[in-house]
Request: fold
Amino acid sequence: MNTKNQSSPDNSLHYPLGDVLPESGTTMEVAPGVYWLRMRLPFALDHINLWLLRDELDGVQGWTIIDCGIANDETRTSWEQIFTSQLQGLPVLRVLVTHMHPDHIGLAQWLCERWHVPLWISMTDYLTAQWLSHKEGGAAVGMRAGGGGSADHFQKHGLSAPEDLEKIRARSNYYSNMVPGVPRQYRRIIDGEVIVIGGHGWRVIMGYGHAPEHASLFCKELGVLISGDMLLPRISTNVSVYDADPDADPLGLYLDSLDQYLPLPDDTLVLPSHGKPFTGMKPRIEQLKTHHDERLADTLGACKKPAHARELVPVLFKRELDIHQMTFAMGEAIAHLNYLLRRGRLRRQLCDDGVLRFSVV
Ligand SMILES: [Zn+2]
Reply:
């Protein structure tokens, strides 16, 4: 999931399909055998793009689904419409998920059971989804034992409004409500692996910083990249530090991961999870790097005297935030602080009030 609006639109990006969008319950062919569908999301981010690829597996004709949508009745109904009207009477053969966020993996268990097919996903994202989706075991155990959680994590970074902390505590089942479960088995996908879908090779490009191990898929023959959330045309990918790994450097991982797309051909059609298919991957990568450079400069400016992440939020996000957006904004502010801390540009101090403050070295 991603929250914030990226600066101004840019002429160097092109949207070759124009403004036409697939209606709910329908698909649109965007490359030979590659179909685009959209599902609604109950967030500020109002939709997710999913992809249906014409396929053949073990001699059986059918379809591969890329990403699932969130687990709710509306999305299930939308899928049923697709199954009835768009599959040419053929079955779904497998479900491939780019990463473990609820809008991508939410309905994976339902889809895999519905069609008796395997889930293809990176191991790190599979295990993370397993761990977070347990209502009783997994991550929930640590929460019940008082072992941190998001509220404590953000409190340590200066979030102090009791009503905000209370709302965050009340959301401790947030993930498991949207991802009620994942299939018991999975097929692990690996960086660099070439997956044959519909007679074409799709190379897995693993990216880091947005999700634990996010898979993008590049097909040289078709000139198409299914980018997931790693490259989006209008919003910058959310890069957050979570309570389970509070010293993580997701921004560094994300910026490094972007370089993997630079060798791909300039005319590659990028199929993002949010927004419209576009070309202009390299200028987009440049924009994203510039965007984060500016945010890092703002961060250093804010830390001329010791500052905590909550104080950085209005510097980085100049608009009103609801509690959902505030958790992303806090995660992202900590990501910028941790990036600079790791590179020796900031120092960190645990103050008497239990809050971590950062200052320029
Ligand atoms: Zn995501």
